[in-house]
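Run log // design_07
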């Protein structure tokens, strides 16, 4: 099987010309596809409003902080959210999936049962929406990395349209940058 590596503007334009709207990527990089560099906590609502997803994300942030781990929240352009934990590239997918399951169990113990952590997305070959990917929805919502102070009641993922996201980046930089500096270890937890 072959995959596209988008490492320059020409490759990205080729994908757009080919008809790609939203881009999905692995949780690992091309040089070590067997070693993820993020642990993905994919929050999926089960008949819950987006406010509950926000509540779950904030509880995860507290739990991660108690473990000494930092994370980047991100809208997905849809009903859920991602909490991405940048990690050192020495963990297996099995390690990362076990960690995501642990965090999902933590949400359940904290009383959140209508938003689940989809741990299976932490697997070899699983594809997750890329930061800043436009979603093929009527609103053209963009999967947008956030700062934690933006994760609060009233957060509307549909408000992050291309023009808004471009202004955010120009004014405040790229909120996804910490994801490129993954040095955190999960070994104490799995």
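design_07 sequence
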């Amino acid at each position: 099987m072959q995959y596209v590596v988008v490492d320059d503007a020409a490759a990205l334009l080729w994908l757009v010309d080919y008809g790609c709207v939203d881009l999905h990527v692995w949780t690992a990089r091309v040089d070590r596809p067997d070693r993820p560099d993020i642990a993905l906590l994919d929050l999926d609502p089960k008949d819950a409003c987006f406010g509950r997803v926000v509540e779950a994300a904030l509880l995860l942030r507290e739990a991660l902080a108690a473990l000494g781990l930092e994370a980047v929240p991100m809208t997905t352009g849809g009903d859920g959210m991602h909490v991405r934990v940048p990690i050192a590239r020495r963990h297996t997918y099995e390690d990362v999936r076990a960690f995501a399951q642990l965090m999902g169990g933590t949400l359940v113990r904290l009383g959140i049962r209508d938003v689940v952590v989809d741990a299976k997305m932490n697997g070899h070959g699983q594809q997750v929406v890329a930061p800043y990917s436009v979603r093929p929805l009527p609103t053209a919502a963009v999967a947008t990395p956030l700062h934690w102070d933006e994760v609060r009641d009233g957060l509307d993922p549909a408000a992050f349209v291309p023009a808004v996201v471009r202004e955010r980046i120009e004014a405040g930089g790229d909120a996804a940058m910490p994801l490129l500096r993954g040095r955190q270890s999960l070994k104490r937890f799995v």
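The chain has a mean pLDDT of 95.
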